[in-house]
Amino acid sequence: MLRPASAHKTAALGLTPRLGARGWLSVGLLALIGGGGVVAHFAGAPFYVDLATRLVCLAIAATSLNLILGYGGLLSFGHAVFIGIGAYAVGIPSYHATYGDWQAIASYNGFFHLALAMGLSGLFALVTGAISLRTRGVHFIMITMAFAQMMFFFFVSLEAYGGDDGLTIDVRSELGPLSLDDPLQMFLLAFGVLLATLWLVDRLVHSRFGLVLQGAKDNDERMRMIGFNTYVFRLVAYVIAGALCGLAGALLGNFTAFVSPDMLDWTRSGELMFMVILGGAGTLLGPILGATIFVVLEELLSGLTIYWHLPFGALLILSVLFARGGLMAFVGRLGGND
Amino acid sequence: MTESLLKTVDLSKSFGGIEATRNINLEVRPLETHAIIGPNGAGKTTLVSQLSGTLLPDRGAIYFAGQEITRLSPHRRAALGLARSFQITSLLMSMTVLDNVALAIQAHDGHSFRFFARARTEPGLRRRAQEVLARFDLAQRAHAKVATLSHGERRQVEIAVAVATGARLLLLDEPMAGMGREESRRIVALLEGLKASKTMLLIEHDMDVVFALADRISVLVDGALIATGTPEEIRANGTVRRAYLGEM
Ligand SMILES: Nc1ncnc2c1ncn2[C@@H]1O[C@H](COP(=O)(O)OP(=O)(O)OP(=O)(O)O)[C@@H](O)[C@H]1O
Ligand SMILES: [Mg+2]
């Protein structure tokens, strides 16, 4: 079995010295994922390295969704669209660098890929968010989903890049001395980005900006009445979340060396919501816990039955009924945290 | 005659067939405490909502500090110096008392697009918030979540938040709603302390409170203002006695 490695990787998180049950679960989880990927590599278990890498990429995406869903109260049902945009932002430039045409964007440069992934995702979030955030409740869920499906069909229609068959990435992003063809380096890059994302989100939610975002989730009318244009704060959060998820998509595209419209299908968005809500929306590490449970269950169950999605629904219902605030809050209550 | 701080001209608002606000011409002078009284369903809250910007009027205009604000969004009005407390407590329930007040201060500090520094340890904001809480007898409850407070305490926080915005005009919609005698007295004392520095539009049912606090009183019945005057004038007004005071 995989053993947790050193806990030094979590030092960057700025967790308080008094950890409590939630804190220990968080540190343990990160150590298990980080250590597990590395140990699996040296123990000659590439399957587990891959599993850990996929988990980490999804965890980054779930963390970005948590910023708007958990802290902002925005039930975005189209978040996987940013994974798709991020992944195509790697696939398309790399494709043209190999096969010609479109010289303006043809490139293997990983920094260019990541900037493009985050930039386009952020831009898409800005344009669609400006419209979606005018609506509330079910309308918001439907409209974010509609925008995501729009992009889904857009990529399906791009015959040049494989249409709905997708596009194989022959050459992965070139990021300085890193070689993403090496599974360990790929894993470590993704894990590093996850830690950086967690650090960033932790700073954001405790900043002046973050308090306004959470205040608007709690009571929008009150926040407007004391003078906040809550719409603008939500829009900024939406753009940040979109850009971060684009980054996750770029990593995922590099990891699988393949992009397809399936990456931004609405069911993918649903899975991200599942991770955030099951693990604990509005807790820093909850989405990581949710992503872990998702990936592990998917791995265990998809081999057994084609109905492997069913237990997820049951789990989600149970957690909503019995663990308000997700598993993180549940563990916190067991361990006597607030 | 002093320039009024708040003024409405023929303000009107209907809900379907009900004319909740009918051609209201109201003037609130700087630093006065102006009470609005009227029976249930007279349209008091509807009027306040139009003043604060949560409801848009069908007709008429609202001026604040010489500027027309009829269609301005609530947060822009707040920036101009208008604050509201709600008849039904409206606070950030999952956050602490201190958070609620500190956010009200932050809103007018002008720098809320700060993304990295931890806001809860910013000495400036928190110290000012603590000062406000001390004035409102809430210092001990600073770190309590609003959801855990008693009804009376929440009403106090509601006023503290309005004051913390630094507003010139406080719109107080039944600040003592649902409170016991003792708690009400506390709020009355608080409002007495604010009278000298704030203009207040006070909606209140309790006539003792109104006559104790108000410099002027307007009477609202079925959406229309039927009288405005000093407490003595209102007490002596025959129409008011018949339409409203008589039935108490
Ligand atoms: N959103 C709304 N939709 C429809 N009718 C409304 C709405 N808000 C208020 N009304 C109606 O408008 C009238 C005035 O209501 P309002 O709440 O302003 O009265 P009020 O003077 O504040 O009463 P109270 O003393 O009970 O607080 C009432 O007849 C009420 O039913
Ligand atoms: Mg009312």
Overall CATH architecture of chain A? Orthogonal Bundle
Low-pLDDT residue intervals, each spanning 5 or more residues of chain B: none
Summed up, the domain count of chain B is 2
Widest sheet of chain B: strand order? 7-8-9-4-10-11
Order of helices and strands of chain B: EEEEHEEHEHHHEHEHEEHH
Under CATH, the topology of chain A can be stated as ABC transporter involved in vitamin B12 uptake, BtuC
Give the tally of β-strands of chain B: 11
The largest sheet of chain A is: 2 strands, antiparallel
Q: Name the biggest interface.
A: A-B, 25 and 35 residues
Q: What is the β-strand count of chain A?
A: 4
N- to C-terminal distance of chain B = 34 Å
What is the CATH domain class of chain A? Mainly Alpha
Helix content of chain A: 55-70%
Number of helices of chain A: 13
Range of strand content of chain A: under 5%
Distance between the first and last residues' Cα of chain A = 33 Å
What are the distinct ligands in this entry? adenosine-5'-triphosphate, magnesium ion
Task: Describe, in short, the structure shown.
The complex is a heterodimer of chains A (338) and B (248). Chain A is mainly α and 338 residues long.
